[in-house]
């Protein structure tokens, strides 16, 4: 049994096709098939049901794949141990970022980071908070950027910044004439929300007065991005709340609809998150330093109240 054989098994399990698995493993399809067959012969089992289309795992194959993930991940950590000892900052570094953060934060630090650390191969994926937790635990990514706290014992959190919420209020809204917003004035029935799966939506629901329940509307819409919510608000269909970094990119004309909150300002906590056994600490520190450097000047709010997606 070899690490390469286990990697080939994982590739076939992922792509459910021997040709695709071989392509992504950078070997020929006959080589990959032969190595997997050798492993099956050694274990005296069938890992894959080749008669099914697409190829499927057998029951014992599912267990083999789970164990293979652990073995392959641990084998890769040998290089991490050596790099940590040498203080080397380079190699593959897999990063997951939630959808409500990636459009604003990534352009701010990416160019700075890759210029300062040219030996790092940064692989970035847009993932939901739930996906980030799963991928960290499974060892598929090294670090995530998400709204916290996550309250997961297997994951460490390093706070990057606190991002205030800002109201986007159309002219026909009852709060438009207010110079600043008060949390107690918010009504969940008037707020345009992101779709399920976005922790920012949970932030807003928890922020609003719990006494006010959601009531039937003339229409229901949950969007996957803030741009749609802003356009609907401008049409007079409701108000919405934005993360501060999204608000600074608005046009001068749209900025007239923005309203900050009275102190204490509601905000979300944004953190670097990684598995407690993570060994690429030099890269984690390098990433944190790069983000700290660009965000520090962009967010100057001092008196903020953290709104957790776990609060009810």
Can you give a write-up of this model?
40% of the residues lie in helices and 20% in strands. The protein is of the alpha/beta class. It has 2 domains: 3-83, Winged helix-like DNA-binding domain superfamily/Winged helix DNA-binding domain (Arc Repressor Mutant, subunit A, Orthogonal Bundle); 92-312, D-Maltodextrin-Binding Protein, domain 2 (3-Layer(aba) Sandwich). The strands form 3 sheets. Strands 3, 4, 5, 6, 9, 10, 11 and 12 form an 8-stranded mixed β-sheet that branches. Strands 1-2 form a two-stranded antiparallel sheet. Strands 7-8 form a two-stranded parallel sheet. Helix 2 (18-25) crosses helix 3 (29-43). The longest helix is centred in the first third of the chain and has 28 residues, at 59-86.
Kindly summarize this structure in a few lines.
It contains 10 helices and 12 strands. By secondary structure, it is α/β, with parallel strands linked by helices. The strands form 3 sheets. Strands 3, 4, 5, 6, 9, 10, 11 and 12 form an 8-stranded mixed beta sheet that branches. Strands 1-2 form a two-stranded antiparallel ribbon.
